[in-house]
Amino acid sequence: MTGATSRVALVTGASSGIGAATARLLAARGMRVVVNYLHSATAAEEVVADIEAAGGQAMAVRADVREAPAVGSMIEQVQAVWGGTDVLVHNALAPFVVKPFQDMTWEELGGKLDGEMRAAFAVTKAVLPAMTEQGWGRIVYLGTGLSRQPREGMIALGTAKAALAQFARYLAQELGPLGITVNVVEPGPVDDTRMAADVFDEEHKRRQVAATPLGRLAHPGDVAQAVAFYAGEDSAFMTGTTAAVNGGMSMY
Hints:
The protein is about 45% helix and about 15% strand. The protein is built from 8 helices and 7 strands.
């Protein structure tokens, strides 16, 4: 097992939002961080620059995590510089439609399911050899409260993330004996994300805040704190669990 200060964390979809906040926090806690991105090279390099300016280590690597060859190439790049990946934070969000089921095609629903699980499958397969060899690993998947609490128009995302959550539980059972934990962080509505800006208007946001006992929506940093907990030693005896980061909007 590598020392805590030299662990390598791969954060997918880390050029903005929750992914960027998580990358910065893990780096601040001593991990070397791989900032994965697909389209936003400039934003990813800004995250790397922020980490390095604070005294941390990071590298940006482009890969479409839905494509196994691209993921394999990314892992090879990381191995060449830093060795195996100790921590996987799978945060990348594949596109999805927001519409009622009755207006939806199978391609829209099935395509989201396929993209969600294809990405989780590819990145998990890629990091497991190194984790298995050393007998230590942390896998954290970003889910959503919508997988438990339906909301109008969100059937594609909610169904796909529900599949991801069950996938995580099966992996937790299988990988536990190998020293690898698998957990899920399920944010509620998050302020300062693309989805919040593109899909919901200010009135919708006000209703969400009113329904939240803690009186505001989550910030990316709130979610990053929960992810970092699962990525470290404090969660060593927790696997197959889900952390709801929603200010009490949903309780389960």
